[in-house]
Specification:
The chain is an alpha/beta fold and about 190 residues long. Helix content is about 30%, strand content about 20%. The chain has helices at about 5-15, 25-30, 30-50, 50-65, and strands spanning about 70, 75, 80, 90, 95, 100, 105-110, 120, 125-130, 135, 140, 145, 150, 160-165, 165-170. It is globular.
Length: about 190
Amino acid sequence: MGVFARFREDLTAAKLRDPAARGTAEIALLYPGLHALWAHRVWHALWIRRARFLARAGSQVTRWLTGIEIHPGATIGRRFFIDHGMGVVIGETAEIGDDVMLYHGVTLGGRQREGGKRHPTIEDGVAVGAGAKVLGPITIGAGSVIGANAVVTKDAPADSVLVGVPAKPRAAKKNEDTRSLLTAPEYQI
């Protein structure tokens, strides 16, 4: 997929996920989550080509400009969207699948100092609520929803709903609109 096709896909994903989006120009010019993602692609390309210092320096500039910190070593899939974005942190060994959405204040962080895989794997179609912390080399199964301010430190199967501190997964109920749980007051702390 070409660069411009990828930009169009990102803009469409933002338009689909943000009911406040009024137009393509507004999204392209004013959405820091997209700016951080687009910059990450440049820094990630440098990272995998072993221009590590330049990649880290560039990611820090992006952080200063957007308030979103994405390590250049992180792997991010297609149609990824960060809504609002301020305070989002994505660690070096994090892996994010396609069609994932994060709200502001989310951390995909590590829990150990040893090398190797230290950050979470977020599979396709996962939504992570505002302020949630997903910590360690764990896997969040496809289609799962993590509620606002949840602290997740253990693996979760596909189609899970994770809420609380520490978060405990439960299967989504039949015909449950799990995305609406991200704003339900009973699932926030």
